[in-house]
Design a protein that fits this description.
The protein has about 230 residues and is an alpha/beta fold. Helix content is about 40%, strand content about 20%. The chain has helices at about 5-10, 30-40, 55-65, 85-95, 125-130, 135-140, 150-155, 170-180, 210-225, and strands at about 20-25, 45-50, 70, 80, 100-105, 115, 150, 185-195. The N and C termini lie far apart (about 40 Å).
């Protein structure tokens, strides 16, 4: 339902030097056809098909095939604003940041604004990042991978992957590992990522997870270790 406008938002970025990887995680609808149609019309796009394995393996697969120096994730039911890649790249270059973080705008399926999750002020160094860690966590800016620009060099050097044991909080645990190895970071207040809010039984965040307490407890322990 949302895939065409997701891909369109990526290929229309003002920063055009992109390596676009679409991971088809064993879809049973016409998502693969949609991906292939876009790939035929844009040489920057590669479609990687894998058996249905979950979000962690899908993201790990994307990282494995990525050619660029930086990695950015987009969920297939969301969109990114036209200048997201350009702004994150420019800010990263100014500071040679190991990680660039932006805010998230939540919209409904019609594209109407719902609310923002964003930093109250810019953060430009690692000490300030950890001093404001609680505020950034409360504003929901630290768990997800979608509002970030990562250095692939760090991911490769420390063999960072999304954990395969579960399909919620895997992104938060990945980020906690990444934060351990950063020497520089920046947070910008602009909300450059559009998260589409809708209710569906197929969404992982809205399913029942019998190991939910175990996962949240693990996240909390890792969080305390980091801080």
């Amino acid at each position: 339902t949302f895939l065409p406008r997701c891909i369109t938002s990526i290929i229309n970025q003002s920063y055009s030097h992109l390596d676009i990887i679409l991971v088809n995680d064993g879809s049973s609808d016409n998502s693969l056809d949609i991906c292939n149609q876009y790939a035929q019309n844009d040489k920057r796009i590669r479609v990687i098909s894998i058996p249905n394995s979950g979000v962690s393996i899908a993201r790990n697969t994307g990282m494995q095939y990525a050619k660029g120096d930086f990695i950015q994730f987009v969920d297939s039911d969301d969109m990114i604003k036209p200048h997201m890649c350009q702004i994150l790249m420019e800010e990263q270059q100014k500071n040679d940041a190991d990680l660039a973080i932006c805010g998230i705008e939540h919209i409904d399926t019609a594209g109407e604004h719902l609310f923002y999750e964003c930093a109250e002020k810019p953060v430009n160094n690692i000490n300030e990042f950890f001093n404001t860690f609680g505020d950034l966590l409360e504003h929901n800016l630290l768990r997800s991978p979608v509002n970030k620009l990562y250095k692939k060099q760090i991911i490769l050097k420390y063999n960072l992957i999304f954990p395969l044991d579960f399909n919620i909080a895997e992104d938060a645990l990945f980020n906690l590992e990444y934060y351990k190895y950063m020497k520089s970071v920046l947070v910008i207040p602009q909300s450059l990522y559009n998260c589409i809010n809708y209710i569906s039984d197929s969404r992982l965040t809205q399913k029942f997870h019998s190991n939910y307490f175990y996962i949240q407890n693990l996240f909390f322990k890792k969080l305390v270790e980091l801080l």
